[in-house]
Amino acid sequence: MELSRRKVPLYGQAKVFALLDGFDSLPEDAEVYVVLEGSTLVHVTRALSDVMLCFIVPGHNLAEVVSVQAYLCSETTPLTWVGGASLEYVQDEAQDLAEHLVVHGHCLSSRDHKDLSSLFNLGQQSSRWAMDRRVALAMANLDIPQNWNVLGSHSGDEHSFRESPLHMAVRWGLYRLAELLLCQPGGLMAVSLPNEEGVTPLQLAQTAGNTELLELLTQ
Hints:
Order of helices and strands: EEEEEEEEHHHHHHHH
ANK repeats: 197-219
Helix content: 25-40%
Largest sheet: 8 strands, mixed
Keywords: ANK repeat
Strand order of the largest sheet: 1-3-6-5-4-7-8-2
Radius of gyration: 21 Å
Shape: elongated
InterPro entries: Ankyrin_rpt, Ankyrin_rpt-contain_sf, Rho_GEF
Pfam family, one: Ank
Distance between the termini: 48 Å
C-alpha cells in the first residue's frame, strides 16, 4: 500500500490518500477501515473510496512511527487485509507553541508575545491564519493536566495580574485558539483578567479593532 505522505503532525487531522496494490476497483458494497497502531495507542478510522482511498489521520500521543493496515469488508466478503504501510507522527511548530502555552501559561508576561511571534512566524496575516487552525488542533489534542487553567494558577484560588494564554491569542489575532481557550477552565474569567499592565484580553481586542474576536469575547 502506497501512501500520499509519510509524515503527519502529532495532532493529526491530515488527509492521506492510499493506493492499494492489485486493486483496480473495490466492490460497490465494500468498506475499508484503516488501523493505525502505535506503541501505546491504536486508532481505527474508515477510509472513503472514490478514485483513490482517502482517510483522515487522527491525533496521536507520541512522536513515533506507527503501523498502518487497511482491511476490506462487505456483506459478501469476509474481513480481508488489503495493504500495509507505515506513517510517522512528528512534532511541528504548532505543537511546540501549544505545549509552550500550556507549560508556561502560569508565567507569561506581556513582553513574551513579541518573542513568540517572531519565533513562530506570526507576523504575517497568512502565517497567522494557518497557525491558528494548527495550534488549536494541537492544543485540543494535548493531554492537559487536570489542574491547568487559563488564568495561570495551578491551585485555582488566587489569580495575580499576569498575561494569560488568552491575552496571547488575542494579541496574535488567533480566533480559533481564543475560542478553544474560552472553553477551558478559567477561560471565561480570563476575558476580564488584567495583566501586569492592567490590560484585559477584551481591551486588547477593542484596541486592535478585531470585530471577530470582540464578538467572541462578548457573546
